Amino acid sequence: MSSTFISYGGPDEEFAKKLNSDLTKYGVNTFFFPLDANFGEKLHSTMHRINDYDRTILVCSKDSLDRPGLLYELEKTIEREVREGGKSFLIPIALDDYVFSEWKPEREHLRSEILNRVVADFTGKENYEKQLHRLLQSLDKLKSKHR
Questions:
Q1: Residue 112: exposed, middle, or buried by beta-carbon count in 10 A (0-12, 13-18, 19+)?
Q2: Edge-to-edge strand ranges of the sheet holding 120-121
Q3: Percentage helix, strand, coil for the chain under 3-state DSSP, each rounded to 5
Q4: Which of 18, 20, 93, 143 has its CA 20 to 30 A from that of 12?
Q5: What are the two backbone dihedrals, phi and then psi, of residue 31, each rounded to the nearest 5 degrees?
Q6: Between residues 54 and 49, which one has the greater pLDDT?
Q7: Contacts of 3 (CB under 8 A, 6+ apart)
Q8: Residue closest to 70 by CA, chosen among 88, 83, 57
Q9: How many domains does the chain have?
């Protein structure tokens, strides 16, 4: 199973916490800020650890997408994709339709970088288990594809 950096904004921490718990239960090595950040480490150093993981799960919601830390992590992931010849490291997951309808980031290319991918639909609690299963399958398939 692959390793995954979970990028989210503070208001979505409860969702990210549940996702982290479920991913680790299935054997995915994750970076989840409240558990894996080292005390005293500078935030940018912590965010740079995004490059140490096979994938970046980007939580897309009205509450997360405009937060500076998440945007920084998104930029770093895109830079890595370019640096490594176009490989795909970003897995966006939507908690609402904000990314599709209203989100207008200052750097316009960020929106197209997300929307040019298959976005996991985690809207509604009834979708969670099905989408988690599909996410786990994708992580496994993506890992074997890039060996």
A1: exposed
A2: 29-31, 3-7, 55-60, 90-94, 120-121
A3: 55, 15, 35
A4: 143
A5: -110, 115
A6: 54
A7: 28, 29, 30, 31, 52, 53, 54, 55
A8: 57
A9: 1
48: tokens are 């740079």
Tell me the two tokens of residue 140: 């496994």
For range 49-60, the mean pLDDT: 88
What CATH number should be reported for the domain holding residue 20? 3.40.50.10140
Please check whether residue 6 is in contact with residue 146, taking contact to mean a CB–CB distance below 8 angstroms.
no
- Taking only the tens place, the pLDDT of each residue in 103-129 is 999 888 999 999 999 999 999 888 899
- Distance (Å, rounded) from C-alpha 115 to C-alpha 37? 29
pLDDT in tens, 69-106: 899 999 999 999 999 988 899 999 999 999 999 999 98
For Cα atoms 58, 64, 68, give the angle at the middle one, nearest 5 degrees.
95
Whole-model pTM? 0.88
Q: Quote the domain boundaries for residue 82.
A: 3-145
d(CA 106, CA 27): 37
Nearest-angstrom CA–CA distance, 4 and 139: 8
